[in-house]
Design a protein that fits this description.
The complex is a heterodimer of chains A (335) and B (329). Chain A is an alpha/beta fold and 335 residues long. Chain A contains 11 helices and 7 strands. A 5-stranded parallel β-sheet of chain A has the order 1-2-3-7-6, with helices on both faces. In chain A, strand 6, helix 8 and strand 7 form a beta-alpha-beta unit. Helices cover 38% and strands 21% of the residues of chain B. Chain B has helices at residues 9-23, 47-51, 63-75, 94-108, 135-138, 152-164, 215-230, 247-257, 272-283, 306-312, 316-328; strands at residues 4-8, 27-31, 56-58, 79-83, 115-120, 145-147, 169-174, 182-186, 199-202, 207-211, 234-238, 241-243, 260-267, 293-297. In chain B, strands 3-2-4-5-7-6-12 form a 7-stranded mixed β-sheet, sandwiched between helices. A 5-stranded mixed β-sheet of chain B has the order 9-11-10-13-14, with helices on both faces. Chain B has a two-stranded antiparallel sheet with strand order 1-8. The longest helix of chain B has 16 residues, at 215-230. Chain B starts with a strand and ends with a helix. The chains are: A alpha/beta (335), B alpha/beta (329). Chains A and B meet through helix 5 and helix 6 of A and helix 3, helix 4, helix 8 and helix 9 of B.
């Protein structure tokens, strides 16, 4: 959680310095859900994040510097500068990246889960969607598909109360978001998404069910998006007192209090951990911003596996080579 | 003499999948009613019994979920063949195809080698939602390949290539041809037709007709009539693959004949004929002796009543008339 928060804070600095290309999507206040649930997975399991689940990726072994490369569109980034945020697919780490039309990554992860089932492998899949993305057709189709085919799937619905500028009460008529599970005929757990131990416990139960071949589980995590949709959104539509209320429920502060009170760690240790993480990320950022951008012509590559199909576009671009007008005759066929 | 067997266009498609599934256990099929029922057109009849429910998967009516699952399975090294019951129903999967499958390799370096196949085209009196040709909807999307076979041999050989291809392939089967086209195909020879290569269906020196799919037969009929009645020789090129487009074959023919007519069953506006016209004008303008012309369907939805549909679809008469005008130009 410290890594996630420190990294996002570093990205905000890089954003203000003009190093971040495009938007920046923060997960402030809801880091606990992604991080704690991902800890329930084992080696060989696969995961597909949504846009505010960077923390889950670090739990699965992603080097935080990769997120810096992504956001700064470095040539060395996992998407080679061709896409941003968490949109990468990394088989070695068992990661399927989402695309901007959200809800769709569940449909793709279903195929990964299907491959485990077809091959008789014990691995499971976990994916995330905000309550906003859960209203898409793809999300509905994906949840029903996973349920109907009894795929080893855990879907974490992060109810963070806002989809961009629309409150969740305007997005659905359900009183309680756990009720949506009934429509798919799958078990559902409701958790305090800012209580990492609760999230972890329910995720372990859901992952075990999936691994036993008992199909999909939905976990609805109550959490809160403490910042706007992206860096450009000042969140003026959110009542300040609501933010204050949720600030007191911050997942990092709560877990630190638990660790202190239980004697697992003392304050000095926790502070040192935070400082170490911030230092490490600042150093990584200094390295990453010095890395080169992609070469312009690389925009042409990797469309198909066969690079001879790369678009030469000789007639539609500024570098077109037109025939020499002096050699052009009106009709080549008639001579 | 190799042993030959009369094979319909539909049987050729079935055999391609059957043979690929037999020789490569990573190939599997999924779609609506393809297992127990054997597919709406019975293309996958007998597959469930032969290959079992793990590899012949009946799905919910969820085209986005079907294509999504195919993408994920492809990431895991499987070779999915997803059936759209009618190609018109590919529309609900548009997002998954355009934003996920087509861009996967470009964005992430991880490809999505999958096939989405289904019956397209008119003439079956099936109305606006069971008759469409959807290639133009996808023509502007880099990362996709598109195939539209006209013969049983090509249907078989191209589908096998499509299944083996590392990138996403949309495979358009013309439903009017399913049981009408019968060819003697060799039983023991492996038929494999590479993607991206057009075929000269009928050689000629006076006019080039570029076409694909079911229109091949109307274009071929028009060419025969013109040979008989006018004494002119029309070259008919069957594109077979729409993306990657075999522009070399088109240019080569146009440079020999100096006249080009493009015929397709999809509507004209924004269609493949427009793209081919532009490329020929850029690359072979000086070889043209006449303007380029198109014969396509009307710019309307596909109508239901036979009188309306016959008027909507390009007919041999339309092709003959356009060809004669070009030959006289």
């Amino acid at each position: 959680m410290h890594v996630t928060r420190a990294l996002e804070e570093r990205l905000e600095i890089l954003f203000k310095q003009g190093h971040v290309v495009g938007g920046l999507y923060r997960s402030l206040g809801q880091e606990g859900t992604a991080v704690a649930s991902a800890f329930a997975l084992q080696d060989g399991d696969w995961l597909a994040p949504s846009i505010r689940d960077m923390g889950a990726l670090f739990v699965r072994g992603l080097d935080p510097a990769e997120m810096l490369r992504q956001y700064t569109a470095r040539r060395s980034s996992l998407c080679a500068g061709k896409d941003n945020t968490t949109h990468f697919t990394v088989p070695d780490l068992g990661l399927v990246g989402p695309v901007s039309p959200l809800g769709t990554q569940l449909c793709v992860l279903n195929g990964v889960a299907l491959s485990f089932k077809m091959r008789g492998q014990p691995q499971v899949c976990m994916t995330y969607q905000g309550e906003g993305a859960s209203r898409t057709g793809a999300a509905h189709e994906g949840m029903n598909f996973a349920a109907a085919l009894e795929l080893p799937m855990v879907v974490v619905l992060e109810h963070n109360h806002w989809s961009f500028g629309t409150r969740s009460t305007s997005e659905a008529a359900v009183e309680k978001w756990v009720d949506v599970a009934e429509a798919y005929g799958v078990p559902c757990a409701e958790v305090d998404g800012n209580d990492v131990l609760q999230v972890y416990d329910e995720a372990v139960i859901a992952v075990s069910r999936a691994r036993r071949g008992e199909g999909m589980t939905l976990i609805v995590a109550e959490t809160y998006r403490m910042l706007g949709h992206a860096q450009h959104d000042a969140q003026k539509y959110v009542p300040p007192e609501e933010l204050e209320r949720w600030r007191d429920l911050d997942p990092i502060a709560r877990f630190e209090t638990y660790l202190e009170e239980s004697g697992f760690a003392d304050r000095a240790e926790l502070d040192r951990m935070k400082i170490d993480v911030e230092k490490e990320i600042a150093e990584a950022a200094a390295v990453v911003v010095a890395e080169p951008a992609p070469e312009p012509e690389e925009a042409r590559t990797r469309v198909y596996e066969d690079e001879t199909l790369a678009p030469p576009a000789p007639w539609t671009r500024r570098d077109a080579v037109y025939p020499d007008l002096a050699t052009v005759t009106p009709s080549q066929t008639r001579g | 003499m190799p042993e030959l067997r009369e094979t319909t266009y539909l049987e050729a498609i079935r055999e391609a999948m059957w043979e690929e599934m037999t020789t490569d256990e990573s190939v599997f099929v999924l779609g609506q009613d393809i297992g127990v029922y054997g597919g709406a057109f019975k293309v996958t009849a007998g597959f469930l019994e032969e290959f079992g429910p793990e590899r012949v998967i009946d799905t919910p009516i969820s085209e986005a979920a079907i294509v999504g699952a195919a993408i994920g399975a492809a990431h895991m090294g499987l070779k999915p063949v997803a059936e759209m019951q009618f190609i018109d129903f590919i529309a609900p999967a548009f997002d998954m195809i355009v934003n996920f499958a087509a861009k996967s390799r470009y964005r992430t370096g991880i490809g999505a080698g999958l096939v989405i196949r289904g019956p397209c085209g008119g003439g079956a009196r099936a109305g606006p939602f069971h008759s469409q040709n959807v290639e133009s909807y996808f023509a502007n999307v880099a990362g996709l390949k598109m195939v539209a076979p006209a013969t049983a041999r090509d249907a078989k050989g191209l589908l096998r290539s499509a299944i083996r291809d590392p990138d996403p392939v949309l495979f358009f089967e013309h439903k009017f041809l399913y049981r009408r086209i019968k060819e003697d195909l060799p039983v023991d020879e492996e038929i494999l037709v590479p993607l991206g290569e057009a075929r000269i269906h009928r050689p000629g020196s006076d006019l080039t007709i570029v076409t694909y799919g079911a229109m091949l037969y109307k274009a071929g009929g028009a060419a025969e009539r013109i040979a008989d009645e006018d004494g002119a020789q029309v070259e008919v090129i069957d594109l077979r693959t729409l993306r990657p487009l075999d522009t070399d074959s088109i240019m080569d023919s146009v440079r020999r004949t100096g006249r080009l007519l493009i015929v397709h069953e999809a509507s004209g506006f924004g269609g493949f004929a427009g793209e081919i016209t532009a490329q020929v004008s850029e690359q072979a303008f000086e070889w043209l002796d006449a303007p380029i012309r198109r014969v396509t369907a009307l710019d309307t939805p596909v109508p239901y009543a036979p009188t309306l549909e016959d008027y909507y679809l390009p007919q041999e008469e339309d092709i003959v008339a356009a060809a004669r005008w070009l030959l006289a130009y």
